[in-house]
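STRUCTURE:
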C-alpha cells in the first residue's frame, strides 16, 4: 500500500515515445516528461520481424549461434605463404575485401591494390600492363571471406604474400590475414609505388619467415587473453592497437632473439618494423575475428550477423541463418579526420574487411574502452562511450572477456542481431581508415561510419521467407 500511495501522490509524469514535438510542448508547460527514444521498425520489415519474433526456432538458433561465437578461443600459431595454406588461392587468383566484385566495379583504391599485387607477383612489368591484364580477366577475383580470410581496406591477398595463421584448438578451425604494412602509402590503401612493392617483397622474404619462426618457437599465442589485456590498456581492437602490438612483441620477443632463420640485422629490422607499427596487431585481430564468426555461421534460422565487409563500392553483410548469401547496399562515405591537405573530396567510400572486429564486439563497439581513439577517427571521448552504449541495443550478449573499465568492466556488446537493427533503427558503428578515391594515392584519413540499414532489412526479410517456406513445406 505504501508504494501505491506514493504513486497516487507523486507528481504526474507524461511518457513520450518518438515524438519530440510533443515532449517539447509539454516541457514548455512545465509538465514532467520522460522521453523514450523509440522509432518504428524500418519500413517494409514489420511482417518479417513479427514472424521471426514469434518463432521459437529463431530464438533457439540464436542461442546456439552466440554461444558458439563466444566460446571460440583463437590462437596465433604461424606465418606462412598464402598460396600454401589459404584454400582456393593458387595461380592467378587474387582475394579482395568485401562482397564479390569485378574489375569494372572496382573503386580506385581496389584497382590500385590489384595493380600493386600484379607488380608484386611479377605478373606485369608496369601499372599499365597490370591494369590491361586485370581488365581482360587475366586474374580471378574472389572475396577473402570465401576463403577463411579477412583483409584490411582493399584486402588484396595474392599467393606469395605471407599470412597469419590463427587456429581454434578446440575445433581445429583456422583463419588467415596478411601482415600489416603500416600506415601511409601501402598496398591495402591502393598504393603501388616502387617502395610499396619493395616493402611487400621484404615482408615475404624476411618479416614473414622471422615472425613465423618466432611463433613456432614460442608456441601458440592465446589471442583472446591478449585482446582482453589490450582493451584494459586503452585499445579498441580496430583502429587503436598500440597495446596489443606491444603485448604481441613482448610475447614473441625472446623467440625472436633466439631465431636462427635470418641474420641478426634482419631480426633487428623485424623487431623495429613491428615496434614502430602500432597497427600491426590489427590484422591479427581480424584473423581471430574471422575464425570466431565462422564458428557461428550456417546455423539455420539464426539472425546473427557473421560478416560486415566493404569492397569500396558496396557494403555487404552475411547472416548465420542465410548461409553464404550477401546482402548489399552502396558503400557509405566515412565521416572523418583527414591527413595533410586531403579533404572529403579525396575520399573513397568505405572499404575493407576490418569491420570483422565490430562483429565480435571490438572496434566501434568497444570505443568506450579507448577514449584516445577519438584523436585518430574524430568525435569526443563522451561520444565514444555513447556509441558503445547504443550497441548494446542491437547485440545478443556481453563478451565475458572483453571488458570496459569505464563501464564498470561491463563486457563489450557482442553478436549483432539483424532483427534488432531493423527493429530499433540503431545502426552498427564502425571506426575505420579512409582510402583515397584515386588509385595509387593511399591513405587520406580515418573516421566513423554507420552500416547501411538496407543490408539488414533485406537479410531480415530473406530469413523470414526461409522460415515461412520451411513451415509451409
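SEQUENCE:
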Amino acid at each position: 500500500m505504501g508504494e501505491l500511495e506514493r504513486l497516487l501522490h507523486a507528481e504526474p509524469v507524461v511518457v513520450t515515445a518518438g515524438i519530440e514535438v510533443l515532449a517539447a510542448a509539454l516541457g514548455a508547460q512545465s509538465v514532467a516528461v520522460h522521453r523514450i527514444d523509440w522509432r518504428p521498425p524500418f519500413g517494409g520489415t514489420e511482417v518479417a520481424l513479427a514472424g521471426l519474433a514469434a518463432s521459437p526456432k529463431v530464438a533457439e538458433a540464436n542461442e546456439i549461434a552466440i554461444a558458439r561465437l563466444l566460446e571460440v578461443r583463437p590462437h596465433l600459431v604461424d606465418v606462412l605463404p598464402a598460396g600454401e595454406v589459404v584454400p582456393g588461392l593458387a595461380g592467378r587468383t587474387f582475394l579482395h575485401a568485401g562482397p564479390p566484385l569485378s574489375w569494372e566495379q572496382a573503386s580506385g583504391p581496389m584497382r590500385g591494390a590489384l595493380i600493386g599485387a600484379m607488380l608484386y607477383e611479377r605478373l606485369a612489368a608496369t601499372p599499365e600492363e597490370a591494369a590491361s591484364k586485370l581488365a581482360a580477366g587475366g586474374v580471378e577475383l574472389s572475396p577473402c571471406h570465401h576463403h577463411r580470410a579477412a583483409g584490411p581496406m582493399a584486402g588484396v591477398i595474392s599467393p606469395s604474400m605471407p599470412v597469419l595463421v590463427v587456429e581454434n584448438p578446440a575445433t581445429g578451425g583456422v583463419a588467415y590475414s596478411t601482415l600489416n604494412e603500416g600506415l601511409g602509402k601501402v598496398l591495402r590503401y591502393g598504393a603501388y609505388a616502387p617502395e610499396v612493392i619493395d616493402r611487400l617483397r621484404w615482408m615475404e622474404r624476411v618479416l614473414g619467415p622471422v615472425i613465423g619462426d618466432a611463433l613456432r618457437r614460442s608456441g601458440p599465442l592465446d589471442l583472446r587473453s591478449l585482446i582482453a589485456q589490450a582493451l584494459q590498456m586503452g585499445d579498441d581492437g580496430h583502429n587503436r592497437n598500440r597495446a596489443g602490438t606491444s603485448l604481441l612483441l613482448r610475447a614473441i620477443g625472446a623467440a625472436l632473439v633466439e631465431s636462427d632463420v635470418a641474420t641478426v640485422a634482419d631480426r633487428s629490422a623485424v623487431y623495429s618494423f613491428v615496434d614502430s607499427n602500432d597497427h600491426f596487431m590489427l590484422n591479427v585481430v581480424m584473423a581471430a575475428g574471422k575464425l570466431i564468426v565462422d564458428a557461428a555461421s550456417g546455423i539455420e534460422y539464426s539472425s546473427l550477423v557473421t560478416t560486415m565487409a566493404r569492397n569500396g563500392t558496396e557494403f555487404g553483410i552475411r547472416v548465420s541463418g542465410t548461409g553464404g548469401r550477401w546482402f548489399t547496399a552502396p558503400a557509405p562515405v566515412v565521416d572523418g579526420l583527414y591527413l595533410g591537405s586531403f579533404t572529403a573530396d579525396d575520399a573513397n567510400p568505405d572499404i575493407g574487411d576490418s569491420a570483422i572486429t565490430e562483429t565480435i564486439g571490438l572496434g566501434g563497439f568497444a570505443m568506450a574502452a579507448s577514449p584516445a581513439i577519438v584523436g585518430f577517427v574524430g568525435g569526443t571521448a563522451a561520444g565514444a562511450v555513447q556509441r558503445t552504449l547504443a550497441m548494446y541495443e542491437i547485440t545478443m550478449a556481453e563478451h565475458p572477456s572483453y571488458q570496459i573499465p569505464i563501464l564498470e568492466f561491463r563486457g563489450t556488446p557482442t553478436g549483432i542481431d539483424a532483427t534488432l537493427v531493423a527493429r530499433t533503427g540503431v545502426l552498427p558503428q564502425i571506426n575505420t581508415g579512409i582510402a583515397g578515391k584515386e588509385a595509387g594515392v593511399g591513405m587520406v584519413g580515418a573516421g566513423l561510419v554507420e552500416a547501411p540499414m538496407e543490408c539488414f532489412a533485406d537479410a531480415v526479410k530473406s530469413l523470414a521467407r526461409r522460415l515461412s517456406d520451411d513451415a509451409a513445406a
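REMARK: The longest strand covers residues 395-404.
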